[in-house]
UniProtKB/TrEMBL annotation:
Coiled coil: none annotated. InterPro entries: DNA_bind_recomb_sf, DNA_bind_recombinase_dom, Resolv_N, Resolvase-like_N_sf, SSR_resolvase, Zn_ribbon_recom_dom. This is Resolvase/invertase-type recombinase catalytic domain-containing protein. PROSITE patterns: RECOMBINASE_DNA_BIND, RECOMBINASES_3. Residues 19-170 form the Resolvase/invertase-type recombinase catalytic domain.
Amino acid sequence: MSMNSESHQKITSAHLSRMAYLYVRQSTLRQVLENTESTQRQYALRERAAALGWPLEHIVVIDRDLGQSGASAADREGFQQLVSEVSLGHVGIVLGLEVSRLARNSTDWHRLLELCAFADTLILDEDGLYNPGLFNDRLLLGLKGTMSEAELHVLKARLRGGILSRARRGELKQMLPVGFVHDVQDRVILDPDVQVQGAVRLFFETFKRTGSCLAVVKDFHARGLLFPRRLRSGAHKGELVWAELLHCRARQIIHNPRYAGAFVFGRTKQRHLPNGKICSRLVPSEEWILLRDMHPGYISWEEYQSNRQQVQGNALSWSDDRRRSPAREGNALLQGLVICGTCGERMTVRYHLHRGQSVPTYWCGRRPMHRGESGLCQTVHGGTLDTAIGDVVIEAMTPFAIEVALTVQEELVSRHEEADRLRRQHVERARYEADLAQRRFPEGGPGQPVGRRCA
């Protein structure tokens, strides 16, 4: 009884002459739909404000932040509106079921307390009525805000611990790359769609033959082949679509251990930037949670590692750990293969015209450049060197020339047959979808009855 009278003593006519703002929030849309009891309890605070003397027409309900997290005020328009109204002196009392409904961030919470104390605005929650201008009330509200933020930290830590525990056992369900699906028991299996399997297997076969992601993309484009992918968002999330193979997607496939039958977690980490955006960065492979042979794959683990090393070797770099580069445009036979005998770095190629023909020159200037000196390590005339190496290669390969030619011919035939098979599957899929749409159209087309009227 004394506490109730003390609460009424904190309310003055100045408070009652201003508006009462009730702030309603749930953290997720799922909570809004399923945890309706909490929402009803928050709306019921209107009767509490009316009992304290505020007319119903002076009670404003802010529920624009339903489904928004209280960890930050950046995306909460309702909370920002509340803070603005308090700072303008329009609010006599702020109502919230708990401190956690208003804010789970100490910065946002203490800013609201400062404004309420400055504007002589009261705060009411389920436990009582507080005046932030009074030291004891403000101390208690500060402790509640700290506990609310700590509670959020504990919840996140528990969720993170559960995720890591399941990941270490390989039981964490993740979004799968194209070529894999979950069965009814949530086990990872190869996609039962033979066309999808064929496209993925052809991708790795082509990479094994060409040795480069860009070469795989060019090969698919040259043969008019499409590559599958599943939509990650939108109204058609999860549906399979066929599109041109892009270089970035080819690199993702090569670097994904899932295709070798491995479970992996923690490949990237996200960081929130000051502008509100989220930045993702790659994590070193030593920090991943990696479990091999967890489900069927398209390639072996050894082939996966070999593919990654191949891509790393293809990268153009001046670093010491990358001494090879892919064959590029130009007629130099040894481009990307010649090592400077002076500094040990990879030599580059320059071309000049000699009697109307493009002649390569291998040169290296790495050591002088690193030391800030002028000049080159050495230069080698490419025409003479290429001729000498070419003669050695031809001499070594001549006895096997016929056998190699026959092998190449068989491989070309096999490639054409595989491409034709994939094209036939595309045509069969399109024909099936067209027939299915044609059968469905009369059932719901114009002029067709959609129901019967009961007599």
